[in-house]
User: Fold this.
Amino acid sequence: MKSTLNAMALLRLSVLGPLASRDHLNRGELKAIIKQLATQTYHIPNSKRVYLSEKTIERWYYRWKAKGIDGLISNTRADKDTCQLSPEIQAMILACKKDNPARSIQTIIHFLEATGKVQKEALSRSTVHRLLQKNKLSTRVVDAVEKIERRAFESEFVGDLWFGDVMHGPVIQTEQGRRKVYLVTVMDDASRLACHSAFCLDETAVSIEFVLKEALLKRGLPKKLLVDNGPAYRSESLQNVCARLKIRLIYSKPYEPESKGKLERWHKTVRDQFLTELDVRAVHHIDELNARWWVWLEKKYHQTPHTSLIDVALNHQSPLARFQQDLLKIQPLGEIAKKLDDYFYHRIKRVIKKDATVSYEGCLFEVPFEFVGETVYLVVDAPTQTAKYIESLQHEWLGLAHPLDKLANNHRTRHRPSTLNNIHQTTKTFLVEELYQQNNHQLNTTGEK
Assistant:
């Protein structure tokens, strides 16, 4: 036995504790214990993984049975730090990388194949990567002379900061044919909990606001919302929503994806754990996709301990447990919940036509006739493409908007302004008096004759 044991050997021995302490195992007992050990979480040095597979634990067990603690020490490869490539090929690879540090490994391989230095598919990516890594040339981007100072940060309480972002998803079958979908997510910074997340058929402001509204109903009001610089997040409607709800809207700096590192890590988790296991051929509607997504989100992601969430006892917490820890810190919607839809209505300037109608998305809506010719705000529910009411430019409520029904208008009584009736009555009286005076004049003329 070696005098000094590394941390990995000690970890493996601690994992095998229930097996290593047994002198004899009954039939079938080994498999049952290994299966139970595979369900537990472990703190693995230099790794983000927290689970071990049954095959890994079984392999460690038989190595311990054969060689004791020495069998649990990782053996160093005999060919470590050696390269089987010829010195000429190594020199060409290093020269290609030094000439342009942004070149990828695949580009370097294609260059060597095109020049005839190596046969096609004879040079593996891993071999080139090890050579570049050994010579400290594995990075694709040259470090800037003046680096931006970055610090890892985390909000103190749940609801202090939310993130919003969109991830491009797979192509699925829908009622309108095959369509690409987009995963819109609003995430809490302190707990890494997805306040709400849904697959949408586009990445417009309407889809983003829909997900945000659901997040508010489920998780309360945040203090700040950090979003991307895309046009959907720059929309006037989203800015109005956050301003009216007193949510501070913050935009990340362009070309600095590091500011959204937690969301980038979240997107990687989604791709690795959900999308890789998804059979898109079995999905025939976006509602089916979201149903599967929400089951995985609530049963798997929210329940799994997160390596960056540590409680006072130094145990890893799940996003849901961390969120529930600060329930008293969350600002509830209160009375806002009753009229939350109104906060998300869009307002569009329109001039009311002579027939008291306004248009929206190719449809006509009737409004009160007395505002004909005036410029107003048409308040609409964008997801349903329905007009609700009109407001003045000072945001004063003026009246409801109804879909135009031309057939019903055939039997509708028209209301005329009172001034018009007075004009008609005055005209009628004037004509009667003029006719009376003409008749009197004719009688007087006849009498004189």
Summary: The chain has a mean pLDDT of 82.
